[in-house]
Write a structure and sequence with these properties.
The protein has 20 helices and 21 strands. By secondary structure, it is of the alpha+beta class. The structure holds adenosine-5'-triphosphate (ATP).
Amino acid sequence: MLFRSVADIFERIEGTTKRLEMTEYLVELIKNTPMNVVDKVAYLTTGTVYPPFMGVELGVADKLAMKAIATATATNEEAIQEDYVRSGDLGKTAENTLSKRRTMVLSQRPLTVENVYQTLEKICHAAGSGAQETKIRLLVGLLANATPREARYIIRVSLGKLRLGVADMTFLDALAVAYTGGKEAREVIERAYNFSSDIGYVAKTIAQGGLEAVTRAQISFGRPVKPQLAERLSSLEEILEKLGGKCSAEYKYDGLRIQAQVSPEKVILFSRRQEDVTTQFPDIVEAVSESVTAKEAVVDGECVPIDPDTGDLLPFQVVSQRRGRKYDIEKMIGEVPVVLCLFDVLYVNGEDLTMKPYPERRQKLAEVIKETERVRLAQSIISENPKEIEAFFDKAVQDGMEGLICKSLGSNSVYEAGKRGWAWIKWKRSYRSEMADTVDLVVVGGFAGHGKRAGTYGALLMAAYNPGDEGFDTVCKLGSGFTDEDLAKLPDILKPYLIQHQHPRVNALMKPDYWFIPAKVMELIGDEITLSPLHTCGFGNIRTGSGLAIRFPRLVKFREERAPEDATTVTEILDMYKRQLKQIST
Ligand code: ATP
């Protein structure tokens, strides 16, 4: 398959502000893609070479890319640098520079997707002392045969900055339409994706074996299952009503979500965002191998720091110090020991348990786990008695927990990978008035700062996630709570996401001075949720012509580890608003 046809579609996708059009272009791309390269096209379209959980990076920095463009076009580096200052995008600079060179090249061979992908793979794996030179040589080889437009996308992918804004979910929609003729199959395809976190694997499975193969797709070792997430409610009465009067109430541990995949060969640990964190927790790896009695298992739990002197569980912040530290892990193991509190099992000895109801899974978990000092089962009670659950809640809080997670025991309480559903409901001690709880929102626009804030942003336009259309609906302008230091670094943090026009996934009535690709998530709190004609969150849902807004929002913290699709949803904000009304009226 010629890379030219991929680049053509990329250009069309980039030029559209309409989501429907974006999906149509993707469908066209997939239909024109032969079966053997559909996985590669899937990765490239989402701006990667491998699924993110593999943690393999291209390791191409601006400087290296500039050198490659200079060498491939026999242009001096200063000229490249100047063009980059003007364009702000090395992809464009590559395109501009190649266009000028055009007439001089005689020996070009058209690039194929295979060429491009294999070369990018080699760039990923170049290591050792000559790695930089190898990467430059490989990139030069590609650019020498690329058209200017192809060069734009090759450079952007190499730098990890393709940013077409194609969400994985949009790609799944396109797969459904391309291979089954409609979006009805999307749910089945999405399930396979949530159980593998691998868009290329899903694309290849459906291309080779049709919908049937996707339906049969199971958990596979090495590919993380996306975690099931919890909804929230503020009163036990509502929780019990939602769960049919009875539930498993469990300690809500405040730590790091960990999925452990155990096989005779090895143990792999994945984070909530499907990163491989095995090397950060060698103590957990050892503890899990000791504690899991089955030959193979995939278990789900929370990793919590523990005070070595008292045995008390400590807050999450303590364990987060371990993340990202490569060298002093051994020291940290001594200083901050952790325990793994397990609450679910998804797979045991070849059997996928995700379609079994929760009570069955929990029983299986108890069967395959031998509790040790380092691995425990989450504390829980099964009850229909509100008094008993309240007492358990108080005990949990006394033990330093954030509250409880109440889980459905119903026959449909299957493991819903990647979904936030009503089968799990969190009940935290901070739920007194609705905005006592924070929300995670996505930055979609910015307003220029004046006076003291000249040179940075005066406020940011923030949006909630709307899974219905995978859009981002605005809910407030955030200008408070930033320290001077936060404000100074904002332009740099947001620069990579600046775009010229409103992003197709953003639904906004306000016109900010700047638009951003929805990417950065921030946690904030406000005084209350009010009706507002200026925002699109829940528009028309409560009152015609009005959406919902958060009044007096203040930044709590940047949430680097959050994807935009993990932000608080429009439905959650609508629910918070409704409960707020209820509180006022009682
Ligand atoms: P979320 O993870 O739901 O997106 P969040 O990071 O704000 O949101 P919380 O609102 O604190 O997390 O609650 C859900 C999280 O609680 C789960 O993702 C899981 O990591 C953790 N957790 C702790 N104990 C349990 C338990 N017994 N069952 C399920 N999850 C638990």
